[in-house]
Write a structure and sequence with these properties.
14% of the residues lie in helices and 30% in strands. It starts with a helix and ends in a 10-residue tail after the last helix. The strands form four sheets. It has a five-stranded mixed sheet with strand order 2-3-8-13-6, covered by helices on one side. The chain has 189 residues and is α+β, with helices and mostly antiparallel strands.
Length: 189
């Protein structure tokens, strides 16, 4: 026991003198330091089964309202842009405003909102009709399928150059952002 105390005191004195502190100021009772509180862990991507994804008719022609709710007890991350695909057509709705690859933090129990316009006035002649839309919060997720009939479009969803907003904290903000678009991913001026 004496050997450990002498070694610990000597080591403390050596470290203290290396830092410009006198050896007499070094403590002779070496105790385990209390670790500082660990910083909160950064949120991880949301598990698909922790989310509730919804799509609903908006009351406006060719516009759907989307939402994603985090049902888990912890904040998690979804893609900044909802992944919206129509039937078996190639591609997905284009984000507005244009956005790179980033994430949106969804706190526990909270919901994010987006709006998607499936058809622009200029695309009427080229529009296709599909029987369903798939919405995913992350590209790695399978997404949730919504039939045209469930979205009050019994004749099918007409689509040409669809545009989606980024996730927003409120439905009103999602509607406002979509209204700023001319429907082709370009801001109205």
């Amino acid at each position: 026991m004496l050997t450990r105390t002498v070694l610990a005191t000597s080591a403390a004195a050596l470290l203290a003198s290396a830092g410009g502190v006198s050896a007499t100021a070094a403590p002779t009772d070496i105790r385990a330091a209390h670790p500082a509180a660990a910083p909160a862990a950064a949120p991880k991507p949301c598990a698909e089964n922790a989310l509730t994804v919804k799509a609903a008719a908006s009351g406006q022609d060719h516009v759907l309202r989307l939402s994603v709710k985090n049902r888990s007890a912890r904040a998690c991350l979804v893609s900044r842009v909802p992944l919206v695909t129509y039937g078996d057509l190639d591609g997905a709705a284009v984000p507005f405003p244009l956005s790179g690859s980033s994430t949106y933090k969804l706190d526990a129990g909270k919901t994010a909102h987006a709006a998607v316009r499936s058809l622009t006035a200029s695309g009427d002649s080229d529009a296709r009709s599909v029987g369903y839309v798939v919405v995913a919060a992350n590209p790695e997720h399978h997404g949730k399928k919504f039939t045209a009939a469930a979205l009050s479009e019994a004749g099918g969803l007409r689509v040409w150059s669809p545009v989606t907003t980024l996730w927003q904290p409120t439905r009103a903000q999602a509607d406002e952002v979509l209204a700023e678009s001319d429907g082709a991913g370009i801001q109205k001026v």
